[in-house]
Prior knowledge:
Blueprint: E1 42-54, E2 60-70, E3 73-77, E4 91-94, E5 99-109, E6 112-121, E7 124-133, H1 136-159, E8 193-194, E9 198-199, E10 219-220, E11 231-237, E12 240-245, E13 255-263, H2 267-275, H3 279-282, E14 291-298, E15 302-309, E16 320-331, E17 337-343, E18 355-357, E19 363-370, E20 380-389, H4 394-399, H5 409-414, H6 416-425, H7 428-435, E21 440-444, H8 450-456, E22 464-465, H9 470-473, H10 477-487, H11 498-501, E23 531-533, E24 541-543, H12 547-550, E25 553-555, E26 562-571, H13 589-592, E27 596-604, E28 609-618, H14 627-633, H15 636-640, E29 643-651, H16 654-660, E30 665-666, H17 667-670, E31 672-678, E32 681-687, H18 692-703, E33 709-716, E34 728-735, E35 743-744, H19 748-754
Amino acid sequence: MAETPATSHHRRSLSDFGAVSLGGFFGGGEDHKGGGGAGASTFEYFGWVYHLGINSIGHEYCHLRFLFIRGKYVEMYKRDPHENPGIKPIRRGVVGPTLMLEEVGRRKVYYGDVYVLRFYNRLDESKKGEIACATAGEAQKWLEAFDQSKQQAEYELLRGGSARNKLSMETEINLDVHRPRVRRYASGLKRLIKIGQGPEVLLSQSSKRANGGPDGYFERDGGDAIETYQWKCVRTINGVRIFEDVANSESGKGVIVKAVGVIEASADTAFEVLLNLEKHQRYEWDMLTGDLELLDSYDGHYDVVYGTFDPRYLTRWHSKRDFIFSRQWFRGQDGAYTILHFPAVHKKKPPRSGYRRTKINPSTWEIRNLNSSMGSDSPRCLVTQMLEMNSAGWGRWKKSHCSKFERSVPYALLCQVGGMKEYIGANPALKCASSTTFVQSKLSPVSNADYNESDVKDEFYDAISTDSSSSDDEESDDDALNNKEAKLKLKKTSATDANKELDSEVAPITIDLSQFPCSCPKGKDDADTNCWSTPSGKGFMIRGKNYLKDNSKVTGGEPLLNLIGTDWFKVDKAMDNIALHPRCLVQSEAGKKLPFVLVINLQVPAKPNYSLVLYYAADRPPKPDSLFSKFVDGNDMFRNTRFKLIPSIVEGYWMVKRAVGTKACLLGKAVTCKYLRQDNFLEIDVDIGSSSVARSVIGLVLGYVTSIVVDLAILIEAREEEELPEYILGTVRLNRLKLESAVHLEEAAVHQEEE
Length: 755
């Protein structure tokens, strides 16, 4: 069976922990349109990783190891077993139901940076271990490999089998214990490892694709929610376009501008170049922030750096300058990177004699892969840098080629895209190195689970563009979205066919919202604050009837379910099964009479913790055998691969908008989701704190929560012809919530109910 080009997605954990992605990366693709069967094949994943840990005498180690995943079985070797037939694994085990995997983020190991993945047992977190990869892209592929393996193991359990085939905690792969036996590495690895000190070259011997081809690069639209930006190209400099947001330019709050360029390299390569602090590299492309020093690093996705620059390159009359800024980065489910730069202060670097402290403009970087050009297999990515600046001088620069703006810090920042483009173009080795950094996979003729076949045939993320023309590839995110809108004006989604998902043989009831008082009030109009309302689905883009053929998206229709109330609770710690609490709407007399209620419990990590609880009611029970019924009464594995959320910051600080984004997210693959099906309700507990990336984003949002308006849409992802078009389950608009308005909820009452 021929292997199709790979498409990478992002996920940070296994099963119900799963971070951010799934779908047909390894050996998947269009070959798997059917539902699978007994003749299916098992997937194998293999490649080089670093095994990190602490030995018996307390010393840290970093060993290059060859990792091999065959179905649900995992083996670790000192050498490549393909090149050394008969070699025995030094560790082996199964991906069992209690094995979890978490992306820890970027970490410095010896003399280089790696991306760390942590294994642990969800029943006993003391049982843990770590592996590391050279790039975030390769770490993502290992996450997908382990998640696929976990799904196969779980499916085998669901299908039943002999006791011998049952997975147990005792047989799970153990990466924690250091093996005391020390031997010299194979001669082929001596170039990579200095015994006793660690790697000299971080994973330069990365694995290659089985077919020898590059990864499949793809272009995506700007998001799954309609944004309000209106970008106008005002200047082109060295092939890099400079845009201004003319829709918000008259707000008096400054100007939002962006530089956009296409770089002949993968998004992983551009990301690594941007984050690298080495002087000799940054001097080649960055005229402003070439001299950088790392001050602090937190949770693998956030750091603070200090820099200096000599302003004589801008103007000869000023003293030397220094600055401090923070960097926060995320890798999305679609493989795109977002990096936020904020001005900062740090106790390690007080004002310095002879230097003038400068405040760097708040800015963001967004890097996403594009389709390869026609007739070429070279990777390409679109790099967008956005920054906020004072409007003084900006207008004059747009009209005149000679302006003081060209000797300013904002201008130097906008030129970084052009500098990076030229630097990568002049260093082909960068592109060659990244093109071989892939987890290798192949198919072996072993029976595979039906569920795996049906799952990997379709990517979870939304709107992969199938158009690979060069003109479309070079569009910015927002240009692409505008074009999508133009094409879809006549393709509005009709009203959701409730009879398709709800039982038409049962008479619908009338739902009176006044019978369901909650702690968070419903807003009367858009001027109200600290409240909720229900926007229509027209602000969201969902899969259309022909999505499987042309990837077409349409605007959403009216939600299937009615939002009848919202609770804003303050809790001592994250609380599951909140629907069992006597103060919960579902436990009221009116709530018990409803045909069905979907309870979404968004657990917000903070001090204290919060729970935003959304109650969606149906006027009839779910229709048997419908997609909605399969989700409500199905297993957690199915729910995790289908439960989708689309966010949109309608009003708020522009950097918060960029951090949150507008791309649909499979929540079951992004964070830990727990499900409780009981009586007339299904509760979904969404633990936002289970993902370090989600924690970082929500931490940023909470800092601006009193000034933002956010829309959310929830839906079940449609993957089969008969499930299309998609429909929106429910929406909510949260208007400038106040943290202090949250009502305290006691945990003890839930335990009493459970008992």
